[in-house]
Amino acid sequence: MCDIGLYGLAIMGQNFALNMASKGFSVAVCNRSPSKVDDCVARAAGEGIATLTGHKDPADFIAALAKPRKVVLLVMAGKPVDDTIALLSQHMEAGDVIVDGGNEWFPNSVRRAEDLKPRGIMFVGCGVSGGEEGARNGPSLMPGGPRKAYDLLEPIFSKAAAQVDGQPCVTYCGEIGAGNYVKMIHNGIEYGDMQLIAECMDIMREVCGMSLDAISAK
User: N or C: which end of the chain has fewer CB within 10 A?
Assistant: First the structure.
């Protein structure tokens, strides 16, 4: 039985699945488009990773997971997340965990957690930062949800996350919505910094008449 499952095999999903598998965890993967399952399995084989298995049927995918089941979703934010939860949760049971790793608006995570609560399925909204390279080699992870769910995920997330000075770039952010909120603030700061850099470069080039080489030397 697999330690964790990942549904959604675009670039981020494939890379995070390979990341977890390369850290010694057994990972089941699934996707709406079966061809992407084949692509991910082929990538794993090409990298010498033997702990990743592909599944093209959602029921088989969930059945491949050790209980309590842990499933990470990396699909487009909004309705696709709701549709994927409905697709997979019908095969899940109380005590299982669903993690949304997309950049979701935090009230949506709160709503989804409330919808799943009567069935005993725990929901975690987790910010994932670092792009495709980070997903493959070590992202910053910002999970928010039930503490019990985080404790189940922590052994995997701590090894898959980026490591700085011997410490993993993941911590429990708080109850549901907290992880998405932290990621929202993170993105606001990040893109504000990028805008500042771009405006400074524009002033140096257009007002000061500096060449690109001169700007880069600064």
Answer: C
Nearest to 188 by CA among 145, 135, 127: 127
Residue 38 CB coordination number (10 Å) = 14
Phi then psi for residue 145, to 5 deg, are: 165, -165
Angle, in degrees to the nearest 10, between helices 106-116 and 178-202: 160
Per-residue pLDDT tens over the stretch 80-89: 999 999 999 9
- CA nearest 130: which of 119, 142, 120? 142
pTM for the complete prediction?
A: 0.89
User: Is 190 marked active-site?
Assistant: yes
183 is catalytic: yes
- Tell me the per-residue pLDDT of 149-184, one tens digit each, with 9 for 90 and over: 999 999 999 999 999 999 999 999 999 999 998 988
Gyration radius from the chain CA atoms: 19
Which candidate in 36, 70, 104, 183 is catalytic?
183
Catalytic residue among 93, 190, 206, 218: 190
Contacts of 21 (CB under 8 A, 6+ apart): 27, 44, 49, 51, 52
